[in-house]
Specification:
The chain has two helices and no strands. The chain is an all-alpha fold. It has one domain. The radius of gyration is 23 Å and the shape is rod-shaped.
């Protein structure tokens, strides 16, 4: 049976995983947008449309910046998930130690 603290930690970990899944999908879509913007820019460069090149270059930079933000948030959240796991594991080990279990199966 979980203690209130470990149940709360497990719930937080579940919420973090849900957020991670959403951010993973967002990161993948942001990456697709950057790729699409890059392809459109290359097409405009090949066609010699200088005005469109300038406009698409700005859009590509905006897409890259947005992707960077999403990627940073995703990496930060993954680190937080690992920290939460370590906290839960440490608490479980301490609980087992205090209850006299050796941890050896």
């Amino acid at each position: 049976m979980h203690t209130a603290g470990s149940a709360g930690s497990s719930a937080r970990l579940g919420e973090l995983h849900e957020c991670s899944a959403l951010l993973r999908r967002t990161r993948m879509r942001a990456e697709e947008i950057v790729d699409e913007a890059r392809a459109l820019l290359a097409e405009a460069e090949r066609s010699g449309d200088a005005e469109r090149v300038v406009h698409l270059h700005v859009q590509l930079e905006q897409a890259r910046h947005s992707y960077s933000k999403v990627l940073t948030a995703y990496v930060t959240l993954c680190r937080r998930i690992n920290e939460e796991r370590q906290t839960i594991l440490g608490a479980e080990i301490e609980k087992d130690r205090q209850s006299g279990l050796s941890g050896v199966a």
